[in-house]
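COMPLEX REQUEST
Ligand: zinc ion
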Amino acid sequence: MHVSVLASGSKGNSIFVEINNTRLLIDAGISARRISKSLLGIGVDINNIDGIIITHEHRDHINGLPTLCKKYNIPIYSRAATFKAMYCLEKLSMECLHPIKDNFQIGSLSIDAFNTSHDAADPVGYSVHGKQQKCTVATDLGFVTSTVQEAIDESDVLILEANHDQKMLREGNYPWSLKQRIMSNRGHLSNSDAAWALVRMKKHNPYVFLAHMSEENNCPAVAKQTITQIIKQQGINPGEDMTLQFAKQNETVTLPANKFI
Ligand SMILES: [Zn+2]
Ligand SMILES: [Zn+2]
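STATUS: Structure written out below.
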């Protein structure tokens, strides 16, 4: 299994996943040019991508789609309501669009879409299942519903949102309406809520990318402190029972090559 988070945060998100020779992008919120360049950096030709699966229609998840569709003709999979709500729908060729139900197949992979609580048309996260591996993406979450918790359980690799520190958000410079949106049940997940989802996870030794981190209301040192403190108190040793890695906005972060082959 190869997993690389090409970009993560409010300025754009895209994740590359390859399992059993099927290659996917999950979200395409950075430019097609940058996606192509980042893929080359990890030895992948963009022409060999089998599909793009989209979580929801916010721009930081779809900005690269028009060019990816036009130039490379890559099939795009998402909920019908998500396609309908895309600002760039007119620029996408109908042939590229594949509306999905809760389970679908791309190449050798079986993919589950699970509903998330977020302020978009029909937002989902994804669990990608190979023969023996499971990789789950759960970002842009107002809170961790029982559906989300069930989906992240048993994941070998998990990309989980740790968006903000509650105190930094409350005391920060954002207008009150935006603070309320982020904190609401349909907004974004805080560091401590991410930690509790990890504590409840049924899996030994998962590799976790902490993702969609706010540049205004969070920082790696604070997130690390909050999350490790909570999981340690619950008997989980970071580094031994679970590996934590931070995804980045402007840099590719890759799963170590010897993990979950
Ligand atoms: Zn969003
Ligand atoms: Zn987002």
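REMARKS: The mean pLDDT is 96. Residues 32 and 71 are 9 Å apart (CA to CA).
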